[in-house]
Amino acid sequence: MQTISRYMLVQLILFAISVAVSLAVAVWLAQSLRFVDMIVNDGLPASTFFYFIILLMPYFLVIVIPVATFCSVLFIYNKMNTDSELVVLKAAGFSQFQLAKPGILLGALSMLTVVAINFYFLPVSYREFRELQHFFRDNLSPVLLKAGKFNTLNDEYTIYFKEKTPAGELKGLLVHDSSTPGVNVTYIADTGALLKEDDDFRAVLWDASRQEVDPLTGRMSIAYSDKYILKFGDINQEEGDRWLKPRERFLHELLFPDSSDSRDVANHDKLVAAGHYRIASPLFTLAMAFIALACLLSGEFSRRGYLGRIMVAITFMGIMMLAMFLLKDIAEKNKNFVPLLYIWPLVVILASIFFINKRKKRKSKINTHTDKPNQDPISFGNAPNIKSKRTT
Predict the structure, then answer these.
(1) pLDDT tens across 217-271, in order?
(2) Which residue ranges make up each domain of the chain?
(3) How many CA atoms lie within 13 A of 37 on its CB side?
(4) Backbone angle region of 309, left / alpha / beta, with phi > 0 → left and psi within -120 to 50 → alpha
(5) Which regions of the chain are under pLDDT 50?
(6) Closest CA to 351 of 266, 280, 294
């Protein structure tokens, strides 16, 4: 690789990384707000919070890498155009392909990165994220019970409390037990705590009352005690009952759904379309680099800047992204449109190559001078040649 190409590639990679990190952090902050409540109000450990966000990072990168690639090519090549560096390189004999080569290499590196994320890191990380989410939400860990709300456990127990202290104590606790058919028991306590030992959930109530209504007579009996211990038993759900979403599946699980699973059969077209989109999205990343190259390398040098070309590139980039998302939704509903997921980015790449290699024909200057040897550049028509006589 030539020194100038290596220099351009390094500049492109550094700028692309900076843009990708900035966009990923912005998306990370926006998405992390929904987990902050778990730390502030529910006592979820901060380490678990950061682990949640790290597991979502591959999904964020798949979104920001194409945009970062486009922005890097657009910015670096526009800077070199503005500084007349590309003009000097063209005058030095660099072809259009040699000038575009660093941008194409950046697009190829970004494409390979998206391939690695789509085929391995995304399903692995998102599956782990969903399993943790399933553990905290569906297994009903005490730290996720909401204050001021009625929390239902397995449709048998309902827990309500006003507030939770930093020590984990629950103030104004109410527990309604309907685990025994035909018998409803309500416990009310000033303070209490929820504990978990292996798969056994327990509620410890202090200064509590037990209220029960006799279903035959309708009379209510109330009993008071300094301490009640309620055992909820094993309320875990089987992991096998959870259906894997498309983001959690590996490529072969998307392209070849389980025919014995009724939910896979019902979502067959959606899963297959998601698998093909996972294959085609790296081409979409490469196409983003080609769009920026086509807009900035085609045409002649302009001293007035390239704002118009930049706006055209951004417009085409927006159309490209919108078309890919629309094609994905259409392919999920009709599998006959799946080939368009591959055709669309390939058409964009080929069209960009055409415009990169296209050169405007320069108008040749026509010599306005006549070839007649006896006609002077300045003519006085057919005036006679006057010879001056020398006087003596």
Answers:
(1) 778 888 888 888 887 755 554 444 678 889 999 999 999 998 888 889 989 999 9
(2) 3-138+244-357, 145-236
(3) 7
(4) alpha
(5) 140, 237-240, 361-392
(6) 294
